[in-house]
Design goal:
six-stranded mixed beta sheet, alpha/beta
């Protein structure tokens, strides 16, 4: 598959005109989680840049940092003039050490809608009730409708077993809640020189395909739910190929999140 620079506008229109199937839900909520430096915050900036049609820096990002730049639970709405009914939540990065980074318990609480925006993550003590940032009775607009695992392609082989177990613990909890789960595979330019030189060839790259399979084997996510993406980080203007790659992922996961709304929030039983 070769990405065409003609596609972004078509995909952009699909996202712009998307209508949520349940009128009681204002926005589809996506939660980004993954290791420190994977590019979670940069993904939000990239998506916002696409929808604003200009470089947009709303979320503090530092891809080479070894400590998380995000310390609060933050929700970034993409809504604009009644279009793009989506919101992406950013959280503290995962770390392999037991008492560092966001706790698995806090991520699971966020999935269930218990964590209020502005909560300061505490790696040692997870959020519990009573607390002003703990939402006791979350509604459909508070819950997460799709979990996005953000994984750096160039660092997959270096991830310790303890770290992977943290991620799997969250995945198991999300599966019990029937929340759709995907992977955004970042830092692909550091994995494949061919892709770095010509982003349109990303799906032709054997190295990228191998990384997708490796990620699938590591996390247990099907390959067709793993999307290589390129974040804006050095570019000074918008780029059609970068936009197309991200929009390709969004046009896949948005209907899946909507399917979750239909199946889980329209009085159908689901596991907690």
């Amino acid at each position: 598959m070769e990405i065409s620079p003609v596609e972004p506008r078509s995909n952009d229109q699909q996202t712009e005109n998307f209508q949520i199937s349940n009128e009681g839900v204002r926005e589809l909520n996506f939660l980004l989680y993954g290791p420190v430096g994977a590019g979670k915050s940069s993904i939000i900036n990239t998506i916002k840049s696409i929808f604003e049609e200009r470089q947009y820096i709303e979320c503090l990002a530092a891809a080479e940092s070894t400590t998380s730049q995000t310390i609060h639970f933050q929700k970034f709405s993409m809504a604009k003039d009644g279009s793009f009914p989506f919101a992406f939540s950013d959280i503290m990065g995962l770390e392999k050490e037991l008492l560092k980074g966001v706790s698995s318990e806090d991520i699971i609480s966020a999935l269930k809608g218990h964590v209020k925006e502005g909560y300061t993550f505490n790696p040692v003590i997870p959020l519990t009730d009573p607390n002003e940032y703990y939402r006791t009775n979350p509604g459909p607009n508070d819950k997460i409708h799709c979990l996005i695992n953000v994984m750096p392609a160039d660092k997959l082989a270096m991830m310790a077993d303890d770290f992977i177990q943290k991620m799997k613990q969250v995945r198991v909890a999300a599966s019990r809640m029937n929340i759709p789960q995907v992977v955004f595979l970042t830092r692909i330019d550091r994995t494949c020189q061919m892709t770095k030189e010509d982003l349109r060839k990303v799906y032709k790259s054997k190295k990228i395909r191998d990384k997708m399979r490796q990620c699938s084997n590591t996390l247990g996510v099907p390959v067709n739910c793993i999307f290589p993406v390129w974040n804006y980080h050095e570019e000074t203007g918008v780029n059609a190929e970068i936009n197309c790659l991200m929009l390709n992922a969004l046009t896949q996961i948005i209907p899946w999140a909507n399917d979750y709304i239909v199946k889980s929030l329209n009085n159908q039983p689901r596991l907690e």
